[in-house]
Amino acid sequence: MPYQITAFSGAQEERRDLAGFLARFVSDGELPHPRPGDDDPAVWLRRMTWWWDENPHCQEDSPRGFLLHHASAGLVGFSGLIPFTYTSAGENIPTLVTTTLFVRDLHRSAVMGLITRQRALGRDFQIIDGSPSPEMRRLLGKLGYEHAGDRSQYVFPTRTFGGSLARLALVAADWSVPLPSAAETAGCRLINDPARWIEPASGRDEAGSIRRASDPATLAWLARCGSEPRAFFGLVDADGVPIARALGVYKKRVGVNACLFLDHADFHPGGGGLLLLVKKLLSDPAAGLARDTAMIVISRFGSPSWHGVPGRTAGSILHYQLPSRWQGRPRSCLPVEGDLVLL
What we know:
Elements: E1 3-7, H1 12-27, H2 41-53, E2 65-70, E3 74-88, E4 91-98, E5 102-103, H3 111-120, E6 126-129, H4 134-142, E7 146-147, E8 151-157, H5 163-172, E9 189-191, E10 211-212, H6 216-224, E11 230-236, E12 242-253, E13 256-266, H7 273-283, E14 293-300, E15 312-314, E16 319-321
Parallel strand pairs: 4-6, 13-14
Antiparallel strand pairs: 1-2, 2-3, 3-4, 3-5, 3-10, 6-16, 7-16, 8-14, 8-15, 9-11, 11-12, 12-13
Helix pairs in contact: 1-2
């Protein structure tokens, strides 16, 4: 047969060969929407370190992906996997997040071989795919993957981007939520080091739902990896009781720098913890928010409104497939899911 698919071991020599292939793939124009550094082998090697070496969920025997070889052309494809852990009712659900599928145009007929090998792992692992490719998303739907549904976004401008007046306009447009008063956050304090954060036993999600592990090692890993600037924000009350936490990833578009809450949890009894966290960040100059931040944006899945406000509807590329023993359980989805945050 002209094609051979082998498991990627993650050995250093194999990594160097793969990094060179991925960089050439991009420089040859075969990736539709490349990111900065995608044509640099050193960038890919650094990403592999984030995915596997620094990943607290990656074990020696964890799947790392598959290589596609052609008898005469050599390496022509790669499907990568990033190990994660999800939990439900005290059980760990081993999970693999797919990276972008790279297959040379002349060898697209062999793509299904890679996908078949990936799907075989779905008997034991939850598979999460956040591919931006419309073709891939259509294929995932045909293969029975669940779609997380659309997101709702809520925007909170800082003082440098209109402050309270801009927030009033956004509230009127149902794109934002009124914030608590400064007095309500007066006794609260921020924690910016995820290693010092103590996660409560459970958040406000439905009991028994499937959610991503949020231990200190996981939070610290997500806060330090990835090419985009990011910060951890945890809010506790005067007694040190957790109120809310978020991983903020900074993205700049058309010159406007936004802090996107891609991973967050609310532990406030009334569900107002994230709003208290936003208020603290916007009102306290020493809170750790980057100085040039124009707005904080919170994205949410799973409900038509938040505090009675629909927010701005945004599409989602998040798909997942659960092993049969966990299918049917409620699942909490977050914007952080997928591989983009670790590129």
